[in-house]
Amino acid sequence: MRKFLFVLLLIPAFGISQTKNVISTTRMFPKADKVLDFEKALVAHAQKYHTGDWKWRVYEIQSGPDAGGYQVVEGPASWEGLDGRGDLGAEHTMDWNKTVSIYLTDKVEEAFSVYEDSLSTVALGNFSDKIVVNHMYAKPGMIGGVNNLVKRLKKVWMDGNENVAVYQSVISGEPQVITVTRLKDGLKELSDDYRKPLPERYSTAYGAGSWDAFLADYSRYVESRWSELLVYRADLSSK
Fold it and tell me: What is the CATH number of domain 117-227?
């Protein structure tokens, strides 16, 4: 009986540890005169080596400092799954080096991020073809404050029917909170007449003077911020 109870106690911990909420992203930048060659090689590689649990979603970065690049998203996976994945093998590496990387510049960015369900207004797997990605970098020791800002914004997003997925960057450089607004209705969601302005909606949710208080906290907790538009490329992604 003791052994049985011990096993039951382990079940919740095991379930938590196996949560598939980790996203791997790789940003790559093809040489200006090799874009079409790169795209052809990328999709061939994805179809051959990145399917099933490790399938790729490929986005084209259309604005911001990384415009012209491509983001490959893999996951969600659990940390245990990533740990047990192991080496993809010599054949995979050779194919990548000989058929894809020959068209790339030296710039590459790789990162892990964890989806935060409690801060998000859309399910992890409920994707859209166009997304606005906001990167917020916390001041030292202020990541909790940044999370609190996002927690306050969640109510406003929900009231405005905004689909926002929130991620925490993990072991990937400076601590940051990443909010991904999934534009289900496309770019028209960015129009001034699609929704009321954020400050107005925030003040409606929290009362007069609340937006000024939010901005004061924002300046206290956030070191820097930048945003970008990404568009899903189904033709380059795993089938």
Answer: 3.30.70.100
